[in-house]
Amino acid sequence: MTLTKRQLLKSLLGGVALTVLPLSAMAQARKIMVVASTVDIPNFDPHVATGYAPQWLFRNVYDPLVRVTGTPPVATPGLAASWEMSEDGMTYTFHLDPTARFTDGSAVTAADVVYSFQRLLRLGTGPAWMVAGILDGDSVVATDDATVTMNLLKPFAPLLSVLPWMFIVNAAVVEANLGTDDAQAYLLQNIAGSGAFTINRALPGELYELLRVENDWHQGGNIDAVFWRIVREAATTRMLLQRGEVHFALDLFTEDMEALEGVPGVVRIMEPDYRSFSIKMNTAHGPLMDKNLRKAISYAFNYQSMLDAAQPAALMVGPLPPGMFGANPDLEVYRQDMDKAREYLAASDYADGGFTLSIHYAAGYEQQRRWCLILLEALATLNIQLDIRPMVWPDVVAMARSPETVTDFFSIFQSSNYADPDNTAYAAYHSSRNGQWQNPTAHRPMAEPDLFQPRGRPPDRGSPRRNDTRGPRRTLRPVPRGCGRGCSRYLRRARAAQIRHARQCAGL
User: Fold this and answer.
1) Three-state SS annotation for 123-181
2) Within 13 Å of residue 288, how many CA atoms lie on the same side as its CB?
3) Could you read off the pLDDT of 60-116 as tens digits, one per residue?
4) What is the DSSP string of 455-489?
5) CA–CA gap between residue 180 and residue 166 (Å, rounded)
6) C-alpha closest to that of 101 among 31, 173, 52
């Protein structure tokens, strides 16, 4: 893998970054890159961990069958040097690169690919949801040592855009450390991959050091080592960048980007994506089970102030980012209206207010903290207090597993893994995803059928069949939404499988 500046940014899933040039004298001599981020990497298991920081790690220490590059994204070789698709779109054949090697020097074989997909689907965690109902344990077959056949259960247009999230592990290494949990304890802090780098040092909460593998089989690449350095405060990151102590700065805010414009040696890189932000409501536990209270809060919220604090961004209209297939710009959505807010508050069981709700934000994310303050101001107009809690990412993921542990409001960024509405809608709203950080709580029992079932999809998967080939847009969704109702308020739209938004979306 060639770890160029552009590829590093792509591995970070788009967004905003800054780089400082030239590198320090030490970094030049050792060919070291230092990346500053607010986010930790809590788990090294590519079939379990999610989030942009783990994904950055996986893209450098593991390989998928297929990668994507460019905007709009185009499938390019990974472990598979080439592939073919059957005319009906139900069968894919992948031919492995004969030079591909794991970091222990052993060849990557079709058996490793089969093992990896079976483990991923067996665990049912991490990126497994992307192929749930599309592949099962018998779908991926080793035709010979260098050929993999993938038989789909249903046609799925975004398959080649999904495969870059499915990383291949060294089956022999994993089997040797299987334990009683399918090697989850081992892969929590060990690597069994074929990537250009491997982990040399891991200090949770501080830094992670990656070293290039000896006799790396990938073509190109001019970096010997990479440090992922965790810096919680944007102001500190900016200072380190200006002093040349970090070379890429992530998670900076608008004022930081503006302050660094024109600074010698600093290059601002802003790339579009489908990243969205939402404040979801815990409808399964606590006061926000009251529908009228949720409506009152939704009308009291100052959306324009949130947008002003989010620049550059755009207010979303409905659950999908603008420009994505299925997004409808004409939907009726909540906007600030204090008369309606008071009306719905009076109709709720909490007409007099006088209680406290809670919200979390990711520690170090100044924008999220500011958006929490905007919510605090909105609630104050209804005589409701707000407990604002900064939390580190591992605690956020753990909290999301149960309605009893999640905060009343759940604030979250979500980036599209692939340019299809299946990604955003399925991950964030389908009931099978309840308890994940994209979709923390459930409004109703899992046994109740999801209304979000476009035609041509298996019953456990709510995705349109058409792939979106348009380029991504730089968007955020600073809009409070209902939390994790399995899309019970979403309707399907005939043959086009357009995702429509009912007037009382998410029960607000």
Assistant:
1) HCCHHHHHHECCECCCCEEEEECCEEEEECCCCCCCHHHHHHHCECCCHHHHHHCCCCC
2) 34
3) 999 999 998 876 678 999 999 999 999 999 999 999 999 999 999 999 999 999 999
4) TTS-TT----SS---SPP------EEEE---TTTT
5) 23
6) 173
Both tokens of 316, joined, read 């979303």
The answer to whether 11 touches 59, Cβ cutoff 8 Å, is yes
Q: In whole angstroms, how far apart are CA 162 and each of 136, 158, 294?
A: 15, 6, 35
- Which residues are CB-neighbours of 457 under 8 A, at least 6 positions away? 133, 154, 463, 464, 465
Cα 288 to Cα 299, 370, 411, 508: the distances in Å are 14, 22, 15, 10
Beta-bridge partner residues of 83 = 94
Decide: 474 and 275 in contact? Cβ < 8 Å. yes
Please give the C-alpha separations between residue 20 and each of 11, 33, 211, in angstroms, as whole numbers: 18, 11, 21
In degrees rounded to 5, what are phi and psi of residue 138?
A: -105, 0
Instruction: Identify whether the C-beta of residue 212 lies closer than 8 Å to the C-beta of residue 67.
Output: no
The DSSP code for 42 is: -
Residue 436 per-residue DSSP state: B
Q: From CA 461, how far away is CA 43, in angstroms rounded?
A: 27
Burial track 447-482 (b if 16+ CB lie within 10 A, e otherwise) = eeebebbbeebeeebbbbbbbbeeebebbbbbbbbb
pLDDT tens string 254-304 = 778 888 888 888 888 777 677 888 899 999 999 999 999 999 999 999 999
Dist. CA 84–CA 89, nearest whole Å: 10
**Could you give the residue ranges of the DSSP H alpha helices within 249-288?**
254-260
